[in-house]
Amino acid sequence: MQRENWIWLVLLTLAVCWRVPAAQLEGVFDRLFDLYDSSTARELTGHFRLEARLLRLENPDGLLGSGSRCDTVGPCDPVISAYIDYETASAVAGTPEAPDYITYTPVLEVRDENSPVINKVLSRDTCGRTIKKVLVRVHVVDHDRLSSEDLLDDFGCHVKMDQEPAGNMELAEWSRELYCLPKSGLQKLRLSWKYRFFRVDPEDCRTMLSATLAQA
Questions:
Q1: In the predicted model, is pLDDT for residue 137 greater than 60?
Q2: For burial by CB atoms within 10 Å, which of 55, 75, 209, 211 has the most?
Q3: pLDDT tens track for 43-70
Q4: CATH code: domain of residue 201
């Protein structure tokens, strides 16, 4: 069983058998991934680059993570930003231990579209450090012209650390299409992505905190 399916099975058991509300499951995703990664991953030391290709947001019913609709009369107005986290990948989004949303890289802003195609590539390097977990954090809000923004969801896109990174960019292959995990647990909200992870030469390693953004 793939680890994503195993985690969904555990969460379904919590929600159905133990009647745990969805709101109380926030952060359970990351905790389960921590347990999985700690048993399969190894520490890596060196100079690495992660490229994350965000493909599309799927929200056909125009819902917020709370389950309510973005708008009573029209589609959502999604604003998407992202952060590649090498330092605090185990922290739950929105908590003091996690990166502040203001440090995220703006990715896409659209109007009147529930399920936009994103097709953007973010990349960020880690230079000479030891890492054990990498997480791409994606923050999606609904822009409101009259009031404050509403949270659609926070997504965690997990990089498998039990595989050796490619030796360089030329050898690096993109992963299969994957789905990031929504913090809310709402299955009707989905974010698809791919990634590749590879070594870079020390002189080419970029030390900037924010990710760079390019069209896929």
A1: yes
A2: 211
A3: 899 999 999 999 999 999 999 988 899 8
A4: 2.60.40.150
Q: Any bridge partners for residue 49, and if so which?
A: 125, 198
Q: 195 near 174, Cβ under 8 Å? A: yes
Q: Is 179 inside a domain boundary?
A: yes
pLDDT digits (tens, 9 = 90+) for 67-110: 899 887 889 999 999 999 999 988 888 888 999 999 999 999 99
DSSP element (H, E) containing 33: helix 28-40
Q: Which pLDDT band holds residue 7 (cuts at 50, 70, 90)?
A: low
Structure tokens at 68: 């309510």
Predicted local distance difference test score (pLDDT) of residue 148: 75
The residue range of the domain holding 97 is: 43-215
Residue closest to 93 by CA, chosen among 40, 177, 28: 28
Q: What is the count of structural domains for the chain?
A: 1
Provide the 8-state DSSP code for 177: P
Question: Is position 34 within any domain?
Answer: no
Give the helix/strand (H/E) hosting 6.
helix 3-16
CA dihedral of residues 112, 119, 97, 196 (deg, nearest 10): 170
Q: Other C-beta atoms within 10 Å of 171: how many? A: 11
Phi first, then psi: give them for residue 135, nearest 5 degrees: -135, 130
Residue 185 CA from chain centroid, whole number: 13
In a domain, 14, yes or no: no
